[in-house]
UniProtKB/TrEMBL annotation, chain B:
It catalyses: propanoyl-CoA + hydrogencarbonate + ATP = (S)-methylmalonyl-CoA + ADP + phosphate + H(+); butanoyl-CoA + hydrogencarbonate + ATP = (2S)-ethylmalonyl-CoA + ADP + phosphate + H(+). NCBIfam families: PRK08591.1. Keywords: Acetylation, ATP-binding, Biotin, Ligase, Lipid degradation, Lipid metabolism, Magnesium, Manganese, Metal-binding, Mitochondrion, Nucleotide-binding, Phosphoprotein, Transit peptide. This is Propionyl-CoA carboxylase alpha chain, mitochondrial. Residues 609-688 form the Lipoyl-binding domain. Pathway: Metabolic intermediate metabolism; propanoyl-CoA degradation; succinyl-CoA from propanoyl-CoA: step 1/3.
Length: 545, 688
């Protein structure tokens, strides 16, 4: 796109740069041959403001562009509605006086971060955008203070915080003041957690202690090829563990979205990421006091989905794509998947039903048969807890053959990690609707938003099989040593490989025709919109971390 | 007969026909030994005639439309046709089990199998089709031509006998003189047909054709005959009863073909004058009479540019393209076949057979028209909507939303038939119908169909069986935008983008925003970048492109796959295939899908800084996505696989996962075998 657009876009680039240049009258890098005192305050204000607009200066801006990255301000302009950005602290400067930092040419109005508030599709959001052109975006005390200020305000008024990270790390010249700054931010990340949504978009380096701020936020997104997250870089890794690893392999977008699970999604480039972030923001409530947002919807809430009646294969060992189920049920097939490349045996993400944001959790039979393992449990649990914290109803599609057996899982602590998902579903007080599409076996049946964990509405499709385990295994135990295993298996299938055992006990509320699922969910959500449920008072719960 | 009667004969309006449906007692129960659209088609008429229906199906078809439509259904075996739809034992069992009195074979499968007809006769079950003698006589290319000659039917010069080996093939070819055509004696249509211009090609053609004949028909006899260059393919529908009466129901023009398979058909033909039509009709009838034909049949002719016509073959079954004949004659051919099978005489005389209006049929296939005018594709129809909201449109299909188009069966999605008082009217209707046809989840040939029906040569009737290779010598490349078309497309994309942007700001209980009235956008299309100004007044957008102004209005329903817009007063139906946050929009415009990208002026200006990325090609390597056991490997090195075709099956957690090809290619090497255990990321198969 970039290259193709180049020729025709050059015209408007000239326009854009022209606009910026013409408005600041005179370069900030020109020698200051006069005393500042001789300028009027008005002029000084103007000069500082203009200086703030160009950050580290044109040369560094060009270098930033050369790396395929946008500047802090360009990013803010793309993220927010046109002309909606209100900047804070453009005059703040760092207070370091060591190592020549006190020199005029080392002072930049606003320092290495741009902060403020603005609107995304009309809704309030607080933003900070680290400026790599000023000291590599490094975090000074002033930088941290600016971020803390907007976070405090965001919590006061109840609006999300978006951080655009592009920082080389701590401002080494400032020493402990920089470290203190990180801690101040961490504390606010923790205090804001569950109060307002916090989103991090990593758009450049983010290394060392700095990584813990994104890690504490609700969602971490990355830009492919130009962003990195790691505790220590390749050089240190080499010296300590003697491993040869590239920056990209160690902490690139692919690593974190597919291997470590640190990041929730990656985008092609800065523009793609920011535009997607706008789309994503529309799914979120502004705070824990806000209900799940409802947008205008053109998709009829009573739409039937005939394709679902034949989607689940007749043979219970055959896979199908749970995304087909999700896409056809939600509004306009619009599903914002979270962590699409990590623990693919569970699918989580946001969608809308009749305009209202819902969180979707679904086992994915296509990958590892949809079993629950360590990674998928943790992925699911974190998502469920976000939805619960921010009043987003949870819709769960169940087709799970059980927890994954094996030493790798047991040694890795599947008991502890599986418990997280169980805990998250049990604790959640938002509307919970569950559809068992096929298998709901064993403990995994209990975990997946079952009736027993306060599921509000639990449905089974006719293809549902709710049982302790598959027929073969069950028969081997019940009829151990007996000869008529095949008959016994047939009997077991007849008895348990259907929705009746659960339905007769009221563990599912109804057996529904798959094509009517959308209609049922939309109606239930209307009913459940006024659901009120509270857990017993506690200082805080003790989730099995 | 009014034109409006004709097209909806099978579906709704045709009161007098309905009366005739009820007036005679034929059979109580018919088994349809077929699947897909033709099984559904036959059942529709059965239902109208008050006849109970029995479907047969393979196990993968258990949920198919024809099974749901039938009163009873019997599974006759696993997916491969040789084990199910061609499995005579199982089908005979199904007949006994259900007590069906008659069998309609549809087309293909057992429809021209004399063995099957014999077995039915032996058990006293009526075969809805001609008797064994006619099937045998016409099914054999050699015999059929001898009979045709004897019946004074024009036949192709220089045709000869059965071929034993490649040397004999070359000798015969030289006797006839090149070019010659080589094909299976037992096969109908284009299957097993090769054209040779020299000895070497004859040998090759012999080898291919005999292989194909053996695998498709279980009969490797071949036929070599003179090839008529640049011919039209025009066929005559005949209808004959068991009392020696026979009629010709006019012609069908089937010249638009690719690889000898029909793509677009029409009735009548623009090419025939009444005299030629009558001459062809009369010869067809005399051939039918010569073999004591009863039921519906089709006599295929090749017609050269001087309107000389030559007998090609007779198809002793209901043809795929029969609906267009029904449209212009008002007859229900399936009903006629059932009546005839029961022994009723024909209801009509030749003088009563009209040509009312014009009918066009497009064969909608799940295939990629950009590859050799159509290579099969498979997949699940995630969204599917037939254009039945339009008047004078008939869709014969046997699939529905959610259906799988599998590798086991013909990739035809449907037959789309439009009708009009004139050819122009029928063609215009076809444009609308193709534009309104929603197919998602599989690659389909609507782009090609939509281009054929608007091509000047097609419109003027200047066609031959070489139409496609002549019109698209470089292969089909999709619709080529005109300057006006480009502007329409750009304006629609920009307006859609703005409509979506505006809606994104509409939250319940949030009325703070003043809606924006104007936008400056940058739209990229086919490597060109255009600056557009958009201003809004209600649901109408005024788009400025290079000094021109286009008014775009629509209801801007963002959930509908169809996008109906009025562009400067002209109605157009486009389809929005996808739309994402990054401004990428895929629009189907005049049948072809165009990829656009809409960005704000700011985003477009900044996009020059974005690094260009080379997409990583992982489509040629297939790795195991999980640890598991290889259950089956469906390919070997050197095989050609279609995109989406199963390559192997991995079992993990007692679940079978089908690994499919990411592209159409030749298999370079296979690195796994059944029973083997593989780890995650292990290389399974490499493609070229």
């Amino acid at each position: 796109m970039a290259m193709a657009a180049l020729a025709a876009v050059r015209r408007c680039r000239v326009l854009l740069h022209g606009a910026v240049k013409s408005s600041f009258r005179g370069s900030p890098s020109q020698p200051r041959s006069y005393s500042a005192g001789r300028l009027s305050v008005q002029e000084r204000i103007e000069r500082k403001r203009q200086a703030a607009l160009v950050g580290g200066g044109q040369k560094r801006i060009d270098a930033q562009h050369g790396r395929g990255k946008l500047t802090a301000r360009e990013r803010v302009a793309l993220l927010l509605d046109p002309d909606s950005f209100v900047e804070y602290d453009a005059f703040v400067e760092h207070r370091c006086s060591d190592f020549g930092m006190e020199a005029d040419h080392n002072k930049f109005p606003g320092d290495s971060v741009v902060t403020g508030q603005g609107r995304i599709n009309g809704r309030l959001v607080y933003v900070f955008s680290q400026d790599f052109t000023v000291f590599g975006g490094s975090l000074s005390g002033a930088h941290a203070q600016k971020i803390c200020k907007i976070m405090d305000q965001a919590m006061l008024v109840g609006a999300p915080v978006i951080g655009l990270n592009d920082s080389g790390g701590a401002r080494i010249q400032e020493g402990v003041e920089s470290l203190a700054g990180y801690a101040d931010i961490f504390l606010r990340n923790v205090m804001a957690s569950g109060v307002v949504p916090q989103i991090s978009l990593i758009m450049g380096p983010c290394a060392g202690g700095a990584v813990y701020s994104p890690a504490l936020t609700d969602f971490t997104f990355m830009v492919k090829d130009t962003s990195y997250l790691f505790i220590t870089g390749p050089d240190v890794v080499k010296s300590v563990t003697n491993e040869d690893v590239t920056q990209e392999e160690l902490g690139g977008a692919k690593t974190h979205t597919a291997v470590s699970g640190v990041a929730h999604k990656a985008f092609e480039n800065d523009i793609d990421a920011l535009l997607n972030l706008r789309e994503f923001f529309n799914f979120l409530p502004l705070s824990n006091k806000d209900p799940s947002p409802v947008t205008e919807c053109h998709d009829p809430s009573d739409r039937l989905v005939p394709g679902l009646d034949t989607l689940v294969p007749l043979e219970s060992t055959k896979a199908y794509d749970m995304l087909d189920v999700i896409h056809s049920i939600v509004d306009e097939r619009d599903f914002f998947e979270i962590m699409p490349n990590y623990a693919k045996n569970i699918v989580v993400g946001f969608a809308r039903m009749n305009g209202r944001t819902v969180g979707i959790v679904g086992n994915q039979p296509k990958v590892a048969s949809g079993c629950l393992d360590i990674n998928s449990s943790v992925k699911g649990a974190r998502f469920v807890r976000f939805c619960d914290a921010f009043n987003v109803p949870i819709i769960t599609f169940v087709d799970v053959p059980g927890f994954l057996p094996g030493t790798a899982q047991e040694y890795g602590g599947i008991i502890r990690h599986g418990a997280k998902l169980l805990y998250a579903f049990a604790e959640a007080t938002v509307p919970k609707i569950t559809i068992i599409t096929r298998k709901a076996y064993g403990g995994a049946y209990d975990v997946m938003s079952s009736k027993h964990l306060r599921g509000d509405v639990n449905y089974a499709w006719p293809s549902a099989e709710v049982a302790v385990m598959g027929a073969k295994g069950a028969v081997q135990i019940i009829f151990r040593g007996k000869n008529n295993q095949a008959d016994a298996e047939a009997e077991y299938v007849e008895k348990f490989a259907n929705p009746f055992p659960a339905a007769v006990r009221g563990f599912v509320d109804d057996i529904v025709v798959p094509s009517t699922t959308r209609r049922r969910i939309c109606r239930d959500l209307e009913v459940l919109a006024t659901k009120k449920q509270t857990n017993p008072w506690k200082k805080h719960a003790n989730v099995p971390l | 007969r009014s034109p409006s009667r004709s097209c909806h004969v099978v579906t709704t309006v045709f009161p007098s026909a309905l009366f005739s449906f009820l007036s005679v007692q034929t059979f109580d129960k018919i088994l349809i030994a077929n699947r897909g659209e033709i099984a559904c088609r036959v059942m529709k008429t059965c239902k109208k005639m008050g006849i109970k229906t029995v479907a047969v199906h393979s196990d993968v078809d258990a949920n198919a439309v024809h099974v749901k439509m039938a009163d009873e259904a019997v599974c006759v075996g696993p997916a491969p046709t040789s084990k199910s739809y061609l499995n005579m034992d199982a089908i005979m069992n199904a007949i006994r089990q259900t007590g069906a009195q008659a069998v309609h074979p549809g087309y293909g499968f057992l429809s021209e199998n004399k063995e099957f007809a014999k077995r039915l006769a032996a058990e006293g079950v009526s075969f809805i089709g001609p008797d064994t003698h006619a099937i045998q006589a016409m099914g054999d290319k050699i015999e059929s031509k001898l009979i045709a000659k004897a019946a004074k039917v024009n036949t192709i010069p220089g045709f000869d006998g059965v071929v034993k080996d490649a040397d004999e093939a070359v000798r015969i070819a030289n006797e006839i003189g090149y070019p010659v055509m080589i094909k299976a004696s037992a096969g109908g249509g284009g299957k097993g047909m090769r054209i040779a211009w020299n000895d070497e090609e004859t040998r090759e053609g012999f080898r291919f054709s005999s292989q194909e004949a053996a695998s498709s028909f279980g009969d490797d006899r071949l036929l070599i005959e003179k090839f008529i260059d640049n011919p039209r393919h025009i066929e005559i529908q005949v209808l004959a009863d068991k009392h020696g009466n026979a009629l010709w129901l006019n012609e069908r023009e089937c010249s638009i073909q690719r690889r000898n398979q029909k793509v677009v058909e029409e009735a009548p033909s623009t090419f025939l004058d009444p005299e030629t039509r009558r001459a062809m009709g009369e010869q067809a009838v005399s051939l039918a009479k010569a073999v004591n034909y009863s039921s519906a049949g089709t006599v295929e002719f090749l017609v050269d540019s001087r309107k000389n016509f030559y007998f090609l073959e007779m198809n002793t079954r209901l043809q795929v393209e029969h609906p267009i004949t029904e449209c212009i004659t008002g007859l229900d051919l399936v009903q006629q076949m059932i009546r005839i099978a029961k022994g009723f005489p024909l209801q009509h005389t030749q003088a009563e057979i009209p040509i009312n209006g014009w009918a066009i049929e497009s064969r909608v296939y799940a295939e990629d028209p950009y590859k050799s005018f159509g290579l099969p594709s498979i997949g699940r129809l995630s969204q599917y909507q037939e254009p039945l909201n339009l008047h004078n449109v008939r869709v014969d299909s046997g699939i529905e939303e959610g259906s799988d188009i599998s590798i086991y069966y013909d990739p035809m999605i449907s037959k789309l038939v439009t009708y009009g008082a004139t050819r122009a009217e029928a063609l215009k209707k076809m444009e609308d119908a193709l534009d309104n046809y929603v197919i998602r989840g599989v690659t389909h040939n609507i782009p090609l169909l939509r281009e054929i029906i608007v091509h000047p040569r097609f419109i003027s009737g200047d066609i031959s069986t070489k139409f496609l290779p002549e019109v698209y010598p470089e292969g089909f490349k999709g619709h080529q935008l005109t300057a006006t078309g480009r502007k329409e497309l750009l304006a629609t994309a920009a307006s859609l983008f703005v409509a979506a942007q505006l809606r994104a700001q509409k939250f319940l209980g949030d009325l703070r925003l003043q809606e924006r009235r104007s936008w400056e956008l940058c739209v990229e299309l086919e490597k060109g970048v255009h600056m557009l100004g958009v201003s809004r007044s209600g649901a109408t957008y005024t788009v400025e492109i290079d000094g021109d102004k286009l008014e775009v209005s629509s209801d801007w329903n963002l959930a509908s796959p169809l996008l109906t817009v009025t562009l400067n007063g002209i109605h157009r139906t486009l389809q929005c295939l996808s739309r994402n946050a990054a401004g990428e929009i895929s629009l189907q415009y005049l049948g072809t899908t165009f990829k656009l990208r809409v960005l704000s002026k700011l985003a477009a200006a900044l996009s020059v800084h974005m690094p260009e990325k080379v997409p990583e090609d992982t489509s040629s390597i297939l790795r195991s996505p999980m640890p598991g056991t290889v259950v089956a490997v469906s390919v070997k090195a050197g095989d050609t696989v279609a995109e989406g075709q199963e390559i192997c099956v991995i079992e993990a957690m007692k679940m079978q996962n089908s690994m499919t090809a990411a592209k159409t290619a030749k298999v370079r090497s296979v690195h796994c075998k059944p029973g083997e255990t593989v780890g995650e990321g292990d290389l399974l198969v490499e493609l070229e």
